[in-house]
Queue: 2 jobs
Job 1
Amino acid sequence: MLNCRQATRLISQSMDGKLPWHRRLGMRIHLLYCVWCRRYAAQLKFLRTAAKELSPEASSSPSPKLSDQAKQQLRERLRDAVRNPPP
Amino acid sequence: MMDVHNRPAQVPVEATAPDAPPAAQRRLDPERWVEQYGDVLFAFVAARVRDQAIAQDLVQATFLAALKASEGYAGRSSERSWLFGILRNKLVDHYRLQSREVTVAGLESSLPEEEGAFCERGPGKDGWVMKLAPTAWETPETSLVSKEFQDVLKSCLSGLPDKVAQVFLHREVDDVPSEEICKDLGVSPNNLWVMLHRARMGLRRCLEVHWFGHKRDKK
């Protein structure tokens, strides 16, 4: 019989690929009687949905920005590359 | 408008293919890229590499590569997604250069994110410690897109170790299948599942405390 430590690991693994049948079965049986791991599974699904909704930056607010100096350097570098395109 | 192509004088591009997009559309303006896309590209990378100098380098490498590849930009996708595509490739190149994971917790040992969550001994060994077992979350649909929720999730992400966060973002946000992540980030399949497990366990716990408001008792 699986314990919760094992079950949570399997729940995570099941989100990325198909578990071997005996592990899948063991996980499902555990979920039948363990409300906490059932919640865990549901919450990981929630987390997956939430992550997909993240704006592309996915960084903590406020988003890091390029400094004015960095932007100036970038513009110069680009201007340089346009004037002198590599062979 | 800057002419970034060295077109041979005898082949005016405008005179070819009648259904080609107008020349003004096809000509890109790299100087504008910095203002228009610099910050958003930088934020994307900075969330993943954590080192601002490296993030800047990757943005620069992206613009330079875009400049070189501008001949091939036919205007099929938006300029923004085209640039993001180049950035993603640069990012994967960078991941491959990162030092490989040397030691990862095996199946038997406890992970930092599991700490305290499961009973160490006694009849309830390896079951949830009741104080830390998942509580019922109330999740109204609107919460996912609220700025407050996004801020909390992003904050939780920043609490993860660098590579663990990278792996999670690559899997869940970039939607890359596991086998490819192993290649991209130079991790073994075993390392990968451990890192994803750590990320999920850590984020779930963080959200439970900081969003759903279930405070954890001190051990």
Note: Chain B touches chain A through 68 residues (CB under 8 Å).
Job 2
Amino acid sequence: MTALPLILTVFVACAVEAIEALTIVLAAGLTRQWRSTFQGMAAALVVLAAVVAVLGPTITLLPLGALRLVVGALLAIFGLQWLRKAILRASGHKALHDEASAYLREVAAAKAAPVSSRGRVSDWYAFTLSFKGVLLEGLEVVFIVITFGDNQRDLGAAVIGAAIAVVVVTVTGIAVRAPLAKVPENALKFAVGIMLTSFGSFWGAEGAGVTWPGGDAALLVIVPVVAVVSLAYVALLRRYRPAPSLGQQAPAAEGVTR
Amino acid sequence: MLRALKSFGAFWYDFVIGDDWHVAAIVVVALGLTALLTHAAHVSAWWLVPLAAFAALAWSLYRATASKS
């Protein structure tokens, strides 16, 4: 596999996580204080960089077969969880993830919290909110970067994909100074779930000793098949969508099947 | 200390396994069966993991929606 699909997959997955982290950082920075928010963000980025620096090279010490088995299993499990949520959202069984309302919730909580300082941090709430948001969303990015990068023996390409995603989302966020609510986040999550499940199944089976018909080209079949089956599940579940209560509109399947 | 360990474990469980542990169990069993079929029975079981993934997803979606309808 060339580096381009790897970079693109990691880019989309990381962009989704970066958008969620941006929402939290903006809520902390615009409502509380930018200095403490940046301190929290920087502290989280240092922790994440340390995790990549330690785990990335360590995992590559495993034999490729064992690495693919373990990482494939983790990716497939992780991807199926993403896909499960995305299908439930697309079929109207779960509310769509909405950055605008997530932002409003964070802003309301940030406005209500009292100001207290600790050490060099003048607003502890802004610091912890930003730190936790970036660290938790960042851990998913790290997981994807390490699993994809190590499996392809190209950690550099995966890091490039993630870095581009973070830079693009950050620059856009700074430019508009608002959560990126117009990005079709639910559709992106659906796509990422398909990619993680496909790659996880491919690598996991390879690690278990399977030789795929066509080698790496099998992915060109697996990815569309996973997509078609997932869309079929969406169509099936839409038939049994719960009726919306009075005054409440059922969530639409944003950008997935229409 | 014990509380911190518990929350650390709970975080990673939630992070990797998520809302439905059945999905993880089905994937792990499918990979084990694939290894067994490939190495012990010399069957090219490349189809097993994708099929198990679709089954796991269907089962998990059924469990998630059946309780609501």
Note: Helices of chain A lie at 3-31, 34-59, 64-90, 99-112, 124-151, 155-176, 185-207, 219-239.
